[in-house]
Amino acid sequence: MADLSGKVAVITGAASGIGLAGVETFVEAGAKVIAADIQDEKGRALETRFGTDTVRYIHCDVLDLAELEALMEGAVSHFGKIDVVWNNAGSGGTPADIEELDEEGYDKTMDLLLKQVFFGTKYAVAHMKDSGGSIINTSSISALEAGWAPITYSVAKIGVAHFSRIAAAQVAKYKIRVNAILPGFIATSIFGASLGMSREVADQMAEMLAQQGGSMQPAGRTGKGKDIAEMAAFLASDASEFITGSQFTVDGGITVGPRHSWDESAGGPVLEALGITPEQAEQMAEAMKAQQE
To answer: Which GO terms describe its molecular function (predicted)?
Structure first.
């Protein structure tokens, strides 16, 4: 496990999903954490669970830049400094495809998923310039290829990944590192919430995904929030001090290639084009072999 002893971290979207796993993992690694979210009941529960000497909850709507700036100032006020900022807050955004997309849905999604990462980083740098630090931004495998998320979400997430590289270059002079994590299929409430489900129902859907989604990927199980949190903890730690401007795909191998590349029972593109199942192909091969004998 990463060693975060003595570090102060700010995590947005901290009350559930990947962010919650981040709070748990960072505390276990020795950090003090400012947990930011708009889910006040869950946020206050974190203070009760860990104690306010270790975790402080701050209500922060990352769409409100004044609140985002105040979040960083609050971290310094509570714990005296900021060593790590994890810009993690987000949602599925507008589900509209390019033909149905409207300006309002586009703006809200881009503001939530990309604009707040720009300004979360900006406000973090103001408090890290003298001592250095690590900034981590949550992107997505939807930044790599089509089919994983709606178009606006996907474009915002590739923006996050590339922003992290450019920002890393600009703030390197302050010994501040900036990296992006690209999570794969992680069982969180974001999927249900993007479908308009209540938070409670979305949480239940996340549990179902955790139990049933393993067959989709080479790792054989659905990703957990802790899988992403462990990568973030590494990037927050001094063990990663030579790493900046990089993108880390944490996806159980789901983007290594089409299913047939890792699942022998799946048919390849040629068989699919011919309408032949793997079983039928095997039978044909056996028949041809028998004829040759």
So the answer is: oxidoreductase activity
Q: How many helices (H) and strands (E) does the chain have?
A: 11, 7
Q: Does the model's pTM come out above 0.90?
A: no
Strand partners, 250: 183
Q: Tokens 């049933």 identify what position?
A: 212
Q: What is the pLDDT of residues 38-71, one digit of tens each?
A: 999 999 999 999 999 999 999 999 999 999 999 9
Rounded CA-CA distance 36/158 in Å is: 24
| Measured distance CA(151)–CA(23) in Å, rounded | 30
- Percent with pLDDT over 70 in the chain: 82
Sheet holding 176-183, edge to edge: 55-59, 32-37, 8-12, 84-87, 133-138, 176-183, 247-250
Q: Are strands 55-59 and 176-183 parallel, antiparallel or unpaired?
A: unpaired
Three-state DSSP at 204 gives helix
Cα–Cα dist 261/47, whole Å: 46
* Active site annotation includes 153: yes
Which residues face 249 on adjacent strands? 182
Go through the domains of the chain in sequence order and give each one's CATH number.
8-256 (3.40.50.720), 258-293 (no CATH)
- Dihedral sign of CA atoms 43, 186, 154, 175 in order: positive
Q: Pick the catalytic residue from 57, 123, 153, 174.
A: 153
111, pLDDT greater than 90? yes
Alpha-carbon span 291 to 29, nearest angstrom: 65
